[in-house]
Amino acid sequence: MSRIDYFRDPNAPEANSVVPSVTAVVQDEKGRVLLIHKTDNDLWALPGGGHDIGESVANTVIREVEEETGISVVVEDIVGLYTDPEHVMAYDDGEVRQQFSICFHARPVGGNLRTSSESKEVRWVAPTDLDGLTIHPSMRLRIDHGLDASRTKPYIG
To answer: Looking at the whole model, is its pTM more than 0.85?
Structure first.
């Protein structure tokens, strides 16, 4: 299913759903960030996805990262809560979802990089190489917050 992301766009369609989701800032021993090249919007992003009934939010992070990248992780803490009503995602089935994402720090503990139906490319990216990738502004905010070692409190916005 394809999607179009609208960010502070006055022509964006009105949201008709909210789905709790997660993303994860995962860094390897070299400080590189785990990113996926998404199949639904052709943008680079942190791995993540929707929270399912019957699982804890930490298990959502673990499941989504492994499904999309092949990397097993342990959840460490929260980067922030991202709920901007001016960021909506329009799917080709008519759903228009308001952003509701909880971003976590997670540590890799195993696995091997691989793609999935949601990721056409998966790679470890040095923070200095992020500007060379097409990343949605909302996702870039999460990445920047996750990499900012001076942050002492989670972002709430």
So the answer is: yes
Pairwise CA distance, residues 29 & 9, whole Å = 38
Q: CA-to-CA distance for 73 and 65, rounded, in angstroms?
A: 7
Domain coordinates of the chain in residue numbers? Answer: 3-151
DSSP track, 21-46: EEEEEEB-TT-PEEEEEETTTS-EE-
How many other CB atoms are there within 10 angstroms of residue 10's CB atom?
A: 6
Nearest CA among 62, 141, 129 for reference residue 99: 141
Number of other residues whose CB lies within 10 A of the CB of residue 104: 27
Max CA distance (Å), the chain: 43
In order along its 157 residues, the chain shows pLDDT tens digits of 678 889 999 999 999 999 899 999 999 999 999 999 999 889 999 999 999 999 999 999 999 999 999 999 999 999 999 999 999 989 999 999 998 999 999 999 999 999 999 999 999 999 999 999 999 999 999 999 999 989 889 999 9
CATH number of 3-151: 3.90.79.10
Element (H, E) at 14: none
